[in-house]
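Supplementary Methods S3. Input chains for the assembly prediction are listed below.
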Amino acid sequence: MSEEFFFYTKGLTVGYGGVPLIKDIEIRIRRGEILTLIGPNGSGKTTILRSLIRQLKPLTGVVYLDGKNMAIQSGRELARNLSIVLTDRVRPERMTCCEVVETGRYPYTGRLGRLSAEDRRIVQEAMELVHVTELAGEDFTRISDGQRQRVMLARALSQEPELIVLDEPTSFLDIRHKLEFLSLLQELSRKRNLSVILSLHELELAERVSDKLVCIQKDRIDRLGTPEEIFVSGYIQQLYQIHTGVEKTCGGTPELPSVKGIPEVFVLAGNGRGTPVYRRLQRQGIPFVTGILWENDQDYPVARQLAVEVVAEPAFYRIRESSVARAKELMTGCREIICALKPELGGELYPELKELWEYGRQLGKT
Amino acid sequence: MNKRITPISRQDVANNIFEEKIGNRSGSSNGLESKKGAGKMKNWMISILCGMVLVWNLMACGRQQPQTPVVSSFLTYSHSMELHYAREFSVDYYEGGYALITLADSERYLLVPEDKAVPEDLETDITVLQQPLKNLYLAASAAMDMFVALDALPRIRFSSLKAEGWYIREAREAMEAGTILYAGKYAAPDYEKILEENCGLAVENTMIYHTPQVKEQLERFGIPVLVDYSSYEKEPLGRTEWVRLYGLLTGREAQAEMLFAAEQAVFESVKGDDSTGKKVAFFYITNNGEIHVRTPSDYLPKMIELAGGCYVFQNSEEESSSSTMMLQWEEFYAAAKDADCLIYNSTVDGELNSVDELLAKSGLLKNFKAVQEGNVFCTSRKLYQSTMSLGTITHDLHEILAGREGNLTYFYKLE
Amino acid sequence: MKRISYEAVFLLLIFLLAGLLTANLCVGSVNIPLREVLSLLKEKGENTVHRDILFVIRFPRALAAAILGGALALSGYLMQTFFHNPIAGPFILGISSGAKLFVALTMVVSLEMLRQPGAGLLIGAAFVGAMLSMVFIILMSGILDRMSMLIVSGVMIGYICSAVTDFVVAFADDADIVNLHNWSKGSFSGTDWEQVAVIAIVVLTVSAGVFLLSKPIQAYQLGENYARNLGVNIRWLRVALVVFSSLLSACVTAFAGPVSFVGIAVPQLVKYLLGTTRSMVMIPACFLGGAVFCLFCDLLARMLLAPTELSISTVTAVFGAPVVLVMMVQRRRDV
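Predicted structure tokens for the full assembly:
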């Protein structure tokens, strides 16, 4: 059964100076899979990764790569199978990007490190794959963080590994580069049947890119599973011990705590238009109510977290009389009514919603 | 070089506390018999002197003033010491037994006789030395020989060399017997010990200017410092002539004159012979391969010339202020390769025991003519302390040049 | 990023080397006209003194300056790479302090026994002292986690050795102190062919060894973790770097005393000329650069105040320190 797994650990315990930090680690990954480690700060993600790449001696247990015990493989052999992208600040003097990528060929070149034509081709290919070809002649220290990270990925690729291990590769990137990088990783993993192990802080990205997730908490692996299994209601909150703020369940966008109190504003919302308003009111510290929202509306989850009360209807149901009445009642109690549906008002709107708006206009609080 | 001398301030003199100063300056046990009673006597004597000088000056108004060093209106110039060779010191005598000593044209000392007073208006840069000078701290090892020859060894109480550092028998015996105490190197004297025994004068060598704070500290304690410049003398007899200065300081002028005359005679006897034309090199090699030789204007090369030899290191400079210079290997090689005789200066880094040791310093010496012919000599350690025997040293050199290596006192042959 | 091609830089360095070697042979405090030098080289000259000066004094000295200069530059390059620090030099690990201590001990002890220490003895003593410092450093590198701490260790060794040296010197005569002071200034004077032979064998062998390490050194430039992942045995590399660098520095200290600044300035200059830090190119270029720099400085040391000789460290400092300063300023602008 273990043979189908390309990379797995058995009874692995890791830690520093003889003190176990995480015990009984059982990680399994097939070829072409992406495995992500998630967990709170200081939970030991980096420790585990370092033990997996043989930079930290495990306290007990074995790591198997391609069926062989990793601890007994020679440095050169391991170098051909495993490459890494770390958070280390790499600041070589006067090295071009091309030269950085070329260091990846080290396990394949001869005594003096001269590159053959084949080596150069592989380097070119690696750079093309991550779209850094035009940076080849640039000084490595002068390019942007995003470009640098890609060059390091190219370097890892030129090593022609079977497994790449990355430690928080997207931490210093902006949102665009985060997405680019991870999508690149996914593409490579599929195209070349490359196994990838990485750790991420960005849960929403982890949810999207991973085939498997490993959740680390306290001194053990809490769960190992697919994103669907991990990102269930309340688990992330429990994993990360979130008390302030509320965590959205499916999707992973967190919200800051709601403002409690007697509502002062009524927001007529829906179709996602309410969310910015809700957040603005939360920032301003104003308690609010909102409606009428169907439970499958985009605004609904955020409203649930942030509003004092939500007048809601189950998905695909007609709006009930009682809901309209409740909404009007709340409107009366508020000092201001915000209509977030302005663009929709001009069209064929549900009559009940139009009715509410008229009512609000009547009250003079819009 | 720092040549400051801390004088008695005129203020002090004016305030009439010079009595105490006199007591401190002499520093000797004599000073302890405080001249309280004689104080009044001194005052009276000064007044008479003042009167005399005043009158003399008034009379002299019309006359043309002769060019005599005037350091105080109380002192009348009498005559100067006639120096035959020495240039680094001069002595001007004044009536009443006072003597003004000038060293290196800049440092001045007034030697005041035992029963006399210090003039009130003495120029401030002149240091007062009140006779008798006792409990001397001798940090100029070149002067020891002179003191011994002058029979003035009892005047010395402190030495900057330990007993084993002296090659002069009497000095070593005195130290072993405890009559002379070791009081630290010139750079770090044992101030407490020196002060405790009322040192009257510190005779330092010129190295003291590398550590001026020591000189200042001694002077602050009221101990006058006299620097022995005899090593700056260009003529060998100029060096020897310093015995006359020490004779003056210790009250043994007559003896000094005799000693000096004797050395002069020895030199005359050696000078007679013609030059042998033999080339001599005098040098030493430091541990990192640098060659140091004496400049041709220094007294040692002059002694070599006097002995009939030819000093190989001639440079174009007429007067160099220092006595040694560094030569590059090329120049040394070019000049000394064909020298007939090599003399190694052992005083700096120690005596050599054999030619092999010399060659261990640098293998390049193998090719030198003197090495190949076996004419390599080394100075013995007592050479630099035997300042009263320059004549004998020159005689030794003469013998070496003549090929008679049997009876040498200050050199020995390296085998 | 390359300003000039590598070939051009090497040609320049070789040309300078040849030129300076010639200059050092022809120029000296004893005037030997060029014609005579040429005829002497062809074995036709008559003047034995001049011939000796040329072959016995100038030639070995020039060769020693060149080879030791190369050793210094290479040692400095190794230290700068190892510590990722541009002002690391060949003596940063305290090698010269250990050597000085042993030299002081030897001087004092041998003079106590009333024997003059020969040149050979002092060379041996300096070497032994340097090697002991090296062993200590290697032991420390096995214990310490971060290699940057080794610099601290080196500085501490320097202080300890200096203190012990001072203590030893307190028992010494003034003569010893003067001698030690002279030794510390550094000089190529008095080198003979035997010494050149030893220098050549040691330095050239070690330099060849360093060249063979150019691949792991290149990998090391990205940091220890990446180098380890590429299959470099970091522990052995550390030891090798320390040993090779120490051997080179020890050689220089033993034969010429501690010569400063060559090891710090030359790798920076060469890096600037080449426009790269590719180790396979840097290693030979540093060696050549060091040889050129040292020959130049030795020429000045001999000729500026002839017949007196300036200490070589003085000249290297005058030329080397500004280079380092300029490099520092440039670096800040880059960042």
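The longest helix of chain B spans residues 36-60. Chain B has a mean pLDDT of 80.
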